[in-house]
Structure of DUF4142 domain-containing protein:
Amino acid sequence: MQAHSKTYSIIITIFLLFQSSAVISQDYKDEHILRDIVFMRTEGLVMTQLMEKHSKNKDILVLCKQIRNYYKNTQPILVDIIKGKTIDLDQNQFEQIWKAGEKSFLYYSDESESKWNKLFLEHINASVNAYTKLLRERQDDDIAYFTFRALPELVNLAKAYQTLDIN
């Protein structure tokens, strides 16, 4: 009888170890996904602000305003999801993204505007692809909810950008 008891104890211990390992692994994966979302959104917001600062194209400026509103409207959901999670980002990293964007836009000109417009559209499309992937994976209910709320407007912005006669 003791042999069976030891066997059950070992099996239960192994089962619990695998379960806790799976939970830790899933938490790590979710936090990594959230970190990527925060980075992409930061890059997108920096690009939007710099496009607004440098572009003279009225259609681009209107679209930039829509994109800013998109970030403003979806940010509270993301902030709520991030609470209590470790995403390992600090102010220096956000400043680095901003400085890299500013440095890139030093070479912005009316002649190179179409290049910047294409880069901006590529970023929006990359965000759409990343959010679509997240929605398919449905890792965490909160992340899926955020993606479900944020993705349709992002798709609309990408389509609006593509319809502009700017390239």
Observations:
- The longest helix spans residues 2-54.
- Confidence is low (pLDDT under 50) at residues 16-24.
- DSSP finds five helices and no strands in the chain.
- The chain has one domain: 30-163.
